[in-house]
Known about the structure:
This protein is mainly alpha-helical. It has helices at 8-17, 32-44, 74-80, 83-100, 131-147, 178-183, 185-192, 220-230, 246-249, 254-263, 278-284, 290-304, 315-333, 335-339, and strands at 21-23, 51-54, 56-58, 61-62, 104-105, 153-157, 173-174, 198-201, 205-206, 237-240. The two termini are 16 Å apart.
Amino acid sequence: MPGATLDAATAALYRKIQPGGFILFGRNIESPAQLRKLIDDLRDLSDAEPIITIDQEGGRVSRLKLIGSEPPNAQQLRDKGDLSLIRRHGELTASVLRIFGFNLDLCPVLDISFDDEADNSLRGRCYGRTAAEVIEKAAPFNDALREGGIASCGKHFPGYTCAGLDPHHELPVIERDRATLEANELAVFRHFAPTIDSMMIGHITISGVERDATPASLSHYVINDFLRGELGFGDKLVMTDDLDMGAILNHYGFDETMRMGLRAGNDLLMICHRVEMVVQAVEAIKSVETSVIDAALARVAKFKTRLAPPTPFSEEAFRAIDAQIYKLREDTLGIEIAKHRSPEDGKRSPVEIY
C-alpha cells in the first residue's frame, strides 16, 4: 500500500487484480482508527478474504510503535529468561493485531545470533545464541500468537545467521557445510516446520544447502525439494522476503524475479516498496506454467481457510491492550528503562527491516 488511505485509483487497481494479500508498513499507519479503516477497506475490495500482514516482532521491528508502545525485542526477552513473558508477548501481539484486522504476523525470527553485534540485519531480533535456545524461547511466542488467532511466519529460511552482509543491500554468500547447518540453523527450522503456519525464504546462498549461486528465495531445490520435501513443510504457505531488497535487485530483472519466484515454489511474492510495479508483476507471471500457478493458488486458498476474523475495534480497547504491552516492556527491561524512551522510538526508519 502506498499510503495511509485507500485512494480511488489504488482501490480500482486492487479490485481489478485481486492481490492475494497486503503487507503494511510505517507509511500506512497514522492513528488507530485510520489503520482499522484502511484494513477494512482492503478487505471490502477483495473477493476472497485477503492475507493482511505486518512485521510486528518487538523492538525496532514493531510497526505499531508509531501509534502505541514498543514491545521488548526478542533479545531482551531472551536475556530476561522468563518464558511466561515471552508467551505474554505472543498473546498481546495477537490481541493488538486482531483489533486492527491483521491475520498474519511475519515472525518469529528463527535465526540464531552467534554474534549479537553482527551487521546482518538481525541485531536484537533473535531468541537465542544456540539452536536449543531459539527452540526453547521462540516456541512460547509462536504458540501464543497462533492460539490468539494470528498466523505465524518463520523467518528467514534457511538462515541469515552467518551472513556477513545485510541482504537489504547485497546478497550474502556463505560457505557452510551441511553437518554444521544440521546442528544449528536447520535444527531450528526442522523443529518448527510442524508448528509454524508459513515460512519466509531469505535472500541468501548457503553452500551446504544450495548447489549453485541461486538465492534461496528463488531456488526450486531449496524451497520445493528441501523445505517442502526433506523438512516436511509440505503444502503450507511459503513466501519470499521482500523482492525489493538489494540482494535481488542487484542481480535479477523484475520480470525474471517474478517468474523465478513462483517456479521455485513460493506462493506469495513480496513487493514491498515499488507498489507501482504490481501491474507489471501480474503481466510477468502470465507466462508461468498453469500447473505452477494452480499449485500456489491452492496453497494460498488452504491457508486462508484458517484465518481468524478481526475483533471489534474501539480506541478504548486498543489503549487497554497497549497499556499491557507497556507493562510487558517494564517487566522485561525494568521500570526506569521503560519510562525513558529513546529519541528514536516511534520514528519511521528510512530503511524498514524485515
